[in-house]
Amino acid sequence: MIEIFKALLTPTIAVLGIYIAIQQYRLAKEKHRIEIYDRRMKIYTTVMEFVRNAKRNFTINEDNYYEFDKGIAEAEFLFGKEVVALLEDMSNVAFDILMTRNKNDFQEAPTKLTTANLRHAEIIESFLEFEFRVKDLFSPYLRLPGVNGNRKLTHLTG
Q1: Does the residue 3 lie in any domain?
Q2: How many helices (H) and strands (E) does the chain have?
Q3: Structural domain boundaries, residue 82
Q4: Is residue 28 part of a domain?
Q5: d(Cα 24, Cα 71) in Å, to the nearest integer?
Q6: Contacts of 80 (CB under 8 A, 6+ apart)
Q7: Distance CA 103, CA 81 (A)
Q8: pTM of the predicted model, to two decimals?
Q9: Which residues make Cβ contacts (< 8 Å) with residue 136, sequence separation at least 6?
Q10: Residue 34 lies in a domain
Q11: What is the pLDDT of residues 39-81, one digit of tens each?
Q12: Which of 13, 58, 138, 155 has the fewest CB within 10 Å, making it most exposed?
């Protein structure tokens, strides 16, 4: 009887070792997915705060623009081409807003009806339309593991 237990001990330890290794692999994979989710959510939050600030103030200031630009720096490594293209478009339009905002006409009389102020208002309105596109394009990338029965994370891993 002791001989049988001795003979089964080594395979049992091997099976337990394999089981532990598989569990560690699964945990590491899940941790990686959550880390990517967190990094993507941080970028999404930065973008939405930027849009909301523009909506609230009906303009963009340099500090907000540079914070946005810094916040989206790693987007090309975490999202697909469509999100990166959207963020580039947003950055370009936001820069145009900064340029029209910094014109002397706007600085001296932001409530006065001038060509610079009308141009600024047009650009801001086009910028605010990005809000809905952001939500649509980001949403596939912002699904948490296991939420709503969605265990398959096609966008989180690649």
Answers
A1: no
A2: 7, 0
A3: 39-149
A4: no
A5: 32
A6: 141, 155
A7: 33
A8: 0.74
A9: none
A10: no
A11: 999 999 999 999 998 888 888 888 989 999 999 999 999 999 9
A12: 13
